[in-house]
Amino acid sequence: MDWLRICVVLAIAGAAVAAQDDEARESRRVVLTNGTVIESDAVVENDDTVEVDLGFEVLSVPRAEVARIEHVVASRLFHEQVGGEDRSLDDNIKAVGEAVVLVRTPVGLGSGFVIHPEGYLITNDHVIEGSTELTVVVYRQATDGLRKDEYKNIRIVATSALLDLALLKIEPDEPEEFVTVPLSNSNHLVQGEGVFAVGNPLGLERSLSEGIIALKSRLLSGQTYVQTTAALSPGNSGGPLFNMAGEVIGVNSLKAVAQGAEGLSFSIPVNRVKAFIDSQEAFAFDTLNANSGHRYYPPPKQGDALEKTP
Q: Which of 52, 60, 82, 196 has its CA at 20 to 30 Å from residue 231's CA atom?
């Protein structure tokens, strides 16, 4: 076999392995009783210990110090869908309704949406800021009507005040599968295309608002947002902005509150959300960090006309 054919064979084999890795490569996340999280591709469970391969050495953890071990599919906490067929609002709500949740803290509430069947969900950082006592409400259609399932064991996986995003994990008492929604691509947005938002404005659960994309990319306070005419109110924050194919194109975050301002709502582009999820280790929530939970806010500015929709 000549060198050219060898290179071609190796390239094809490498591509096949890479594709298989993208689809099926799993790692294990070992969560200790003190809150420390260790992730590795090689974890061996014994009766008295859990052996974790760190690459440069093998860490032996006593079983009594391990709270749980989770399976994590690398870079697959979400699934993508772009260019789906447009549907009616009624059909869209039936498809995505169970994936849109209410996120409640002791001092307020917001919205969120499930991205992974094991219960991973996205919301705004400002919805949960300063609190680790969270409740997530999932709305499900049952034979006797709507059922509201409350989950109080919620883990904060990652959070970023700068990006205003948070990744949460529902920890149910028994394993169960959650309905999810697909994430689209912000680069494919078209000015004037129809969009809709689902959330809990002012605590009015499962509310729908409709609009269009007013501008694909609006620069505000150093970050870009999708500007939309869909009505947002406090309680919508963290909820999804959908295109008419039921694909998430943004996370609802801001609205204009200046006198005379109408139909000026802003959502975090979904591409920024996907980058946040893929880089979750950089934003990992650490309960042992002395700075966790401490926020240093800038002083108020006169005439500030933008407001987050908690």
A: 82
Closest to 267 measured CA to CA, from 202, 206, 198 = 198
The catalytically annotated residue of 125, 126, 184, 209 is 126
What pLDDT, in 10s, does the model give residues 54-97? Answer: 877 899 999 999 888 876 545 569 999 988 899 999 999 999 99
Map out the domains of the chain with their CATH numbers. 26-74 (2.30.30.100), 90-180+278-283 (2.40.10.10), 186-270 (2.40.10.10)
Kindly report, residue by residue over 153-209, the tens digit of the pLDDT: 999 999 999 999 999 999 999 989 999 999 999 999 999 999 999 999 999 999 999
Active site residue 221: no
Answer yes or no: pTM beyond 0.70.
yes
For residues 276-307, b (16+ Cβ closer than 10 Å) or e, as one string?
Answer: bbeebeebebeeeeeeeeeeeeeeeeeeeebe
Residue 126 annotated to the active site: yes
- The pair of three-digit structure tokens given for residue 144, joined into one six-digit string: 């006797």
Q: How far apart are CA 123 and CA 253, in angstroms?
A: 9
Could you tell me whether strands 135-142 and 145-151 are parallel, antiparallel, or unpaired per DSSP bridges?
Answer: antiparallel
Catalytic residue from among 184, 233, 237, 253 = 237
What residues contact residue 83 under an 8 Å CB cut-off, 6+ apart? 188, 245
186 is known as an active-site residue: no
What are the tens digits of pLDDT across the range 110-145?
999 999 999 999 999 999 998 899 999 999 988 888
